[in-house]
Every structure is written in C-alpha cells, then in structure tokens.
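Worked example 4.2. Below are the chains of a multi-component assembly; read each line carefully before continuing.
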Amino acid sequence: MKTIVVASGKGGTGKTTMTALFAHAAAGTSRIALADADVEASNLPIALMAQPVSCEAFAGGSVANIDPGLCAGCGACIRACRFGAIYTPGEADPFTPFAVDPWSCEGCGACAYVCAVDAISLEHLQAGEACTATSTVGPLAFGQLAAGQDLSGRLVTEVRERASRLAEESLADVLLIDGPPGVGCPTIAAITNTDQLVAIAEPTVSGAHDLGRLADLADRLGVPVAVVLNKSDLSAEGADQIRAMCRDRGTPLLGEVPFDPAVARFLGQLACGIEPGTLFASSPGLKAAADAWVRIAGSLELARA
Amino acid sequence: MTDVDARPITVAVASGKGGTGKTLVATNLAWMLAREGRLVTLVDCDVQAPNDHLFFETGEAQVTEVFVPHIEVDAERCTACGACRDACAYGALRVLGSTVMVFDELCHGCGLCLSVCPQLALTETPRRIGEVRRADVLAPGALVLVGGRIDIGEVRSPEVVRVARERALREHADVIVLDTPPGVACTAVASVHGADLLLLVSEDTPFGLHDLRLSIDLAQELGIPAAVMENRAGPMAEDPSRSMLETLCFERGVPIWARIPFDRRIAETYARGGLVLDESERVQRALADVADAMWRQVGATHEVGTP
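Applying the procedure described above to all two chains together yields the following structure tokens:
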C-alpha cells in the first residue's frame, strides 16, 4: 500500500478539494482509504459527505488550577512559570492572590512543584476527538482539536493510525491524506513516513514562498515531493514562478488545474447522483485534476485493483 | 493622537480556514490606516507561512533571533534516576542506559526538569528556532512590519509568535494589526490572545462556514469581540435568504462589517504581490467600513483620536 499526502504550506490553495477529486478519480481503479490530517479545520468529511461511525475522546495535556482557599500568596508559582500564565487578579478578585490563565498555561507543573502548601493541582483536559467515518470512495479517519490545544501533531498521528487500520481492514491500495497548512507540528506529523507528498501550489508570490518552505521540510524528512499547480491561469507571472521553482528544485510538476467554477460544483453534482466519470470529462478543470491523479498514480506504480 | 490609554488598539485578522484572505485584508488595512496618519505596526504571526513581507518594499530589517532552552545532561553527574523523566509533562526526556536523552522537539522549555534533578546534572543552553524581523515600510515608525518566521523543522511556533508580538509592542503604535495563522490550535491562540478585536475573514462556502463556526467558538471562549469580513462575496451575498454566511452570523450574533466581492482582478493583483487598495474602489470602501466599525467597537475601551 502507498501513502500519499496532499499538502501546501500556504492555506486555502485547494488541498481538500483536490484530495476529494483525487479520491473520486482513484476510486475507479484502486481501493482507497482516507485521512483528514487538518485537525484544526477538518473539511474532508464535508467534501466526501462522509457518515461518522465512531468518535473517541482524545486526551490532551493539563492545565494548572490554584485553590484560593489554600494559596498562601507567596508568589513562588509566578516566579516558576515561564509562560506568563500566572497573574494577580488584583481588584478584579481581591480574595485570589494568584490565578492561572488557561490559554497561556502549558500544563508543565512547574508551579505545582514549587508550591509549598500544595494549593496547585493539574487538571486533565480533553484535547479533541478522533473519528472514523464511511464515504462512497472509501473509509475515512478524521479528528477535531479543541480550541487552543497544543497537541495537534499527536492528534494527527492518532488520525493516521486510525486511517492505517482502516486501510488494512479494507485491503486498500492507497491511503490518501489531506494535510494541514503550514510547516509546523501537524504538517510534520502528516507527511513523515509517507511515500509521496503532492503539494498543491497556487500561482501567487505567497504560494511560491510557502511551497518552498514545505519542500524544504519534505527534503529534511526524506519525503519525495511532486507539485500540482492549482488555479494555474490566475496569474501568468505567478505560474511561471512555480514552474521555474519546480525546474530548479528538480520537483516533478504533475499537473496544472485552471480556475474553473465546475470544480466547486463537482461535489454538489456528485450528491445528485451524477457519475464521477461523466463529471471528470465535462470541464477543463476537472479533467486536469483527473489527469494529475493519473500521473501521480503512474509515478508510484499503483497496482490496479 | 489624544489617546488616554497608551495601549495600542490591537486587531487580529483571523480565520479557521486557510486562504480566505487574511493576508490581503491585514496588509491593505495596515497600509490604509498608516496613510490616514495613524502609527501602525503590522505583525505577521503566521510564522510557518509568513507572507506579509512580500507585499511591501521595506528599509533594512533588524533581526532578532528566537531561542528556546536546550537541556544539556552532565553525564558525570547524572545517575539516570529518572526524576526528570517522571516530572516532564511532554515526554521530552528518556532514560537510556546510564544517562538521559533529550528530545528537543518535545521540550516546551518549562525548566521543571532542572528543578527536580537531585544531582543538578541538567543545564540549559540556547537553541535557535526562528527569527523576528522588524522593518519600516513608510517613514520611520509610520508603518512598521514585524514578521516572525520559524526555522524549517522546528515546532515551537507559539514562542516565535510571542517574541514577534513583544517586539511589536516596543513600537508604541496607535494600532497593531495581527495577521494570524489559520486554525484554532496553540499557534492561532498565541496570535490572537489579548487582542481587542477579531476580524474574521470568511467565505460563504461549506468549508468556509464550517471553519468560521470554530473561529467564532474560539473568539467566544477567549472573550474577544468578533466581526466578519466576507471575502469573494457573490452577487447574492447581501440577500439574507440566500446567504448562508448571513444566517450563521445572525444566529451567532456576529456582525458582518464589510464584503469584498469576488473579482478576478483583485486575485491577479494579489498573486503578483501587489496591494489591491489603490486598484479597487470596492476594497477601499470595504476597508473604510471596517475601520469605522473598528473605532466604534473599541471606542468603549480606548479613546480614539482623529489623526
């Protein structure tokens, strides 16, 4: 089985839409399983009209809590905290000498360790949930992180483990991962140990800049990169910049998908029961996306089911 | 300025979904306010994909490196007792044989391991994870760009954001515009925390609406007033019976302050790295509406003078 991750560096270049199109293009010839690794804004289940089967709580870190009844007001905690998470409410709450800002607290426990009167406890948080779903193209794992949590990388890993189990159970040829934007923890967790990163680039100065950063990260992690240029006709100058970048880096450019309103309509039309094959043949944007998938599959020598 | 409150007004331009137009709005809003005569600092908090610098010619940048502590283990002193491992909430320390291994990518730099080590075998050395660049765009201090950038392979984005925001406060601007990363996790929260206002750039699409809900949840949990700026608005955007965005914002009690229509020319200018403000009257009007609403909104906490 091959694992392909669709990512971009810059947000909003069309990762999720392209992942859904690839999934429909692949479903004709391969058995696929899917993972939505954007656990901060999970949209692949919407794109695939997936039906959730089961969700499990994903345990997160901790947050400190100071019991004002026990606090002696010595201030050891505020000196121990390196995250500026402990503050003095002052007039706002005159009976609480010190309090914790949960949005700044990283749950390390340094404050609890130094508290001489054991007034500080650490409370466990739920960081989000990891879910399994079904869709017409294959089984899907996804997750949603609770607001402000810092375990997005670990939740992505949990989602990928779920997706791998789904892929094994369904004897899939391909695990297709819809990646997060950026080059941080969640992206590292999403692209590590995959067979191919397909970077969805847009022909803008921002798109080129962020594609470069993503490609640098993939190089460090030893993941091969290929590029699909989306909205390719939006800017001739921008498109040339992406093409030149691919040439200079020796990165294969596996497709150029023009801006085409039919791409946005595709998912809705599928819902009305129109065959994906008919739709792929119906517009230049959709045809280009399907062609890009054929080249991706070809480059990985995907077995035909 | 006649501000009685010396604290700058801080507006965070945010969205759950990527690519909705945060950078477009943040760069053009900062530019417009600065031209009106306000002292503006634009902070690029999207440290993983920083793009604001691509839209401005700037003077020479001052670079501040961002460091986090790296734990060094003195093998002579370490007895591999495991106290540091047991204390670490992040699993960044592991006992291997007769010593301790440190995993930098898991370490949050809290320093607790140093405190609990009975042998005093641990020390900290600085380790670089990124940088913050500060540059003047217009006359010195009129429009300042402070951009955070995390090194490739590093994961502590919130720390780079924190240093960038601290650097921005030293500019004594009237207005700080924060261009924030997509999402709702730690880096997004570090970017918007403490702002006076969240300007949520949104689009009326199924993905856009789903992610806007998450952003509104976050704003409400953080207790920051939020308003929406619709981007790529279609012809039906102002018809409440057709606009899903309008319905959602009404249900959640979040005002829509302005709309930027879908216009290929705006996209083309943005693609080149240009500011669209001078090319599009619609964008100008939308941003002026946002600024007016902003002064009304923050008027309760800040005395806003006319420049």
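Take a moment to check your reading of the output against the notes. Chain B has nine helices and eleven strands. Chain B touches chain A through 54 residues (CB under 8 Å).
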